[in-house]
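Morning run. Coffee first, then this:
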Amino acid sequence: MGISKDELNVLLKECQLNKHNNPSYSLSKLHAIIDDLIVHVERSHEVRKVFGILLKDIIQDEMQSISSHQQIDADDIYRQMILFSLDLLCRYLLVLEHLISDNDQQQHIGTPNNKKQKRSFQICYMDWYINERDEILYLFTNFIKLDLRQFWHETERLEDQQIGNTIVDVCLTMIRNNQFSSRARTVKDYLSFILALTIGLFRIEEDSSMKIIQMLQIQEHTATIYSAAIICHVKHFRTDTLLERIINDMCHICLSPSIIQSSASNHSCRSNTSLANTQNETNSTRTMAKLLDELSIHISDHLINYINRLLDLFDSDCLQMRNCLLNVCVNIIRYCSSLSQYKELRGELFFLIIDQYFLDCNVHVRSHAIGLCMNLVESKLIPIKFYCHLTQATLERMNDTSCIVRKHAIQLAIKLLKFNPYTDRFLPIGVMLDEYNAEMNKLIRLQKLLGQTLKIENVSNNVNKINEREEENDLDNQHVLFERIVEQQQRVCSMYLTDESLPSFEQYNAEMSILIQLQSKLNNCLSTNSDIEINDDEEPSEKATRLFDNMVKQSKLVSYLHNATDFCNHLRRFLFKDAFYLLSSKVTSDVLEIIDFLVLWSTFECESAIYKKLEQHMFSLIWSNDKNISNAVLNAFKRICLKIDEDNKDDKISSKQIIEKLLDQIDLNLTLTFEHILKQLLSESTSITANIFHFIEVLLDYYLELTIHNSKKHLSDDFLKQIRQRQSSFLQLISFVIPYDKKHRLSSHFNTIIQNLLRKIDTENLDYIRYQMQIISNLLITKTSYNIPNEFYDLIIKKLLDSNIQSNQHSWINCMKQIITILFLREPVQISANDLIMKFLQSLADQIQWPLDNIDYQSKLNDTSWKIIFIRMLASINTLLTQRIQKHECNNLSSIKKIHKQKNTFITNDDDDNETNNENSFISSSSAAASPITSTVSRQLFDDEDEDRIDSPEDHLTFIQPQQSDLSHLENELLQLNSFFYSIEKWIETFIYEDHSLYDENLVLTSILTCTRMMYVSTILCSKYVDRIFELSKICTYSSVRSALIVSLGDLLLRHPNILEPFTPQFYAQIHDKDLNVGETALCTIAILILREMIKVRGYISEIALCLFHSHTPISSIAQHFFDELSLRQRGMALFNVLPDIISRLSMNNICTLDLFHQIISYLFSFIKNDRHCEILVKRLCRQFKQASGDDRKRANIAFCLSKLNIKTLASYRILKENFPHIMEKNEQNEDDYDKEEHLAWKKYLMPVLNDIERRLKPTELNSSKSLSSSTTPKRKVSRLS
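And here it is:
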């Protein structure tokens, strides 16, 4: 019978009076009525307050009594009071938890008005419940922290397991509800501590384990709390009882899916479908994996005992579990790294990670395994004998299909190289082999010496005469043991070949293990047997033991050298086979990571031929459109060439060392790439740039010292000697940095530089003169007011004319180009640049008696001297024409800018001036109408150079006539009868139709380039030779000539578009030239012309699309960059407008394979993101589908294109539905019946698209779309699909 509230109040007052003096009495009274008491506590908030304060005071007093152990021989009383206290705390906590949970549910029930009225009231109570529960938990924690086991015997468990199970249930309930205050971390610590100590005190590990595992299956957030409880239990009670039960239950459940389904059905209301069960299984396994991960971090030493049981979980289908077990293995490896007794276990775990999980079917597991190995390598926890094995497995993963795995594999290779235990610099393979053989011979000599010490004779040297069935007992004889050791050593030696190929790591390790075991057994025999016959005075046992110790050390050294050689060879093979592929990858992460690898490799081996090729390829990536790649190349150049490490920016950089490195790079024959990298480097505004500019100052000091002996600083004679040995590269470097010399230090020495060159002109070679003139021309570009004496021009021209025909032709031509450039930059006073060059040409012509009296020049071309001078003359003509055209166009551009600047002045003139201007405009318009090409060129030049554009034609027509007259004057010179240029043109007219395979390549190249330069000037000559030029671009034997013709044709296309327009198909056809370099040049030229809007995108752009997936990576990269850039022009319209034409042309037979067509369309359609563009494209493609009647392949291709469009609007769906009806009524017949092939194409590609769209459509929209007429399309705002 229950007690009333009044009786309860009397009892509570009585307990309050005795709580300090006799807390045991109060506890007994409260526990006697605990059931009725709990009922009142649940119902009345006032009772809860009184009972809570009373219970806390009583427990506090009882804790003091237990701590002091005031009563003697009162263990039974203390036992009873402890159980009463635990029961009361547990029941009260359970009440508070129910109140918190119920109050949270009531907040979401009721009308909005009721919610507002009750909200403040409920929040107040909720806060009190949570604070009260937290205080009781704190009290519970302090109470259970006491040494309660002192009142029980060691072999005796606490009575009343029901209380213990209740405490566990209360803790699990609180964890499941997950209703914690702002002190959630502290409360969770309380719960985990209470849970751990309760399980240990009451010895209820078995029951608690299953409860924890079941909770883990349905509560993902509980793993951290339970792991803390298990760790606390293990450390507090120093036993693995709970840990063992948890692991066994976990493995049992993970390996028995049916148990998961049955247990989960008792704790959730999910449906029993297979999908729900699979999802539940994955969630529970993920939570258990998190629990194991936490345990491995803190108690790896205890998990070692159960590693064999845990390894059964490696076959789990849950990737989180496999990743977790990888973490467990790595944590155990870390723990075992300094413990010799776990050496074998550590090796087994290494093999498991490398051999199994580097090849896991899941990308994330493979990536995670590689990432963990990176941490082990950084911590230097990889044993030396596993280093080669891990390196080989890592290099194999660089060919993985996943980019993230490849990225981590390259990062691991970088770590392996950086932290390798072998060397900090790789020696040549020959040196490493010699070192290995020398140490191996030392080992053999030690063994022979040991045999002589033991007086062993007739030791067999034949490796094949080994008795594999020899019993172990026969090895007790030391003579037989030594014979086996020698034989086994020879077996190991025979495995090593003289070339670079080495035996596998596993085979070598197995043979070396046998050898070490035999040597160890012989060592034991020598230490125990004392009856060995000795003939000399020396102690044979001591000598043999010493020799054997040296032999064991030598064997370890030989094994170490073998592993080091194997490690180097693995990496060298990777550089030779896979590094080029990764550098050419279309995935940015591959390129960035391999660049970092090559930067590190340069510190180990920078002189090998393979690395030099890779370095050149890497530096050429500075031209990449990807800013990340170009920046990475720039940083690599700093670290490799300039020794600038971004991690050590404060270190002073040696300018002399920078100069040496830059000179090395110039020698790599990468002039354009090197110059571009240097420009990018000097354009940076960083702290490193200040060091670079300091290097420029030192560089110019060396130049002045080398040139005019006038440097203000004392410079090292040794370094000057090195510079003189490579002065051509040094002068080229000077010419590069002149534009970045902000102080213009060479300007004041300009005349001295000229005079110094004139003094050395007879003694120096053409390369020296060429680079000095390049420096002079760069100085003239910065400032044109310098005076150059006529003697300078006369001596340079004389040097060229008197040059021996045996001198380098390339050097002669470059030197000639430099002097002509200087002539047009700074013309002589007494004679014009054109007249001086014409005299120079006439002198060359006199040397070969030009012009020839007859057309028969075959005999002359057989004369080597005549041919070389003739090539020089043609190259000089080409350079002269180029410089004159550039000068006229630059002058014309200056006039354009000047007239545009005076535009407003003309408007403010009086009426008479306006009439005059109008007359001039009319005259100019007439001339412009006669030559529209000139107007186009002028406008193009202006647009490229100036940001301001001319608004009307009248603004720029007034200055078209000067340019036309200049070019006409130059054309008249070419066509003038009996002139020098006329004779050259007549020779070209004959030579251009010859069979060029019979002539020298340089002669053909120079002649044809001269011809194209004349064609650029003269419209008549262009019309005359254009047919033959395009024919030569296709049939010419020399690939260099075809490449040069592609570039020249690009210039001609700008100059004479109307003449070259009929040859557009042949121009695009050069993309598919049989020589890949020619095709790359053609593609690059066409792409630049289109992107700079110099030519229109014509119907042959499909030829560029065919290159998107070309086998030659540079070609495919250019094509992809072209379409990437085209998609950004005109808000995507530039690419959108050409897509139908590309689809139509690629659909023709024999153009491309079906797979290639699918790849191209998938790539191009990824740029169509505008809904309106998508709608228009759907309409166009549907029209093409109907028009392609009878062309099955074209219809199938169009259907595939429609399937690849990302249709998101209802209007696009309606258009598609109108043209391709989804459902046909039985008696209904469509006007345009599709044949069998059309239906197959529609069903294969478009049925999934229609189904997917209809799945996303709202029912109302779907019905409205069906009711629309098939002949009209609604003209309204595009509505996106839901």
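DSSP finds 60 helices and no strands in the chain. Good start to the day.
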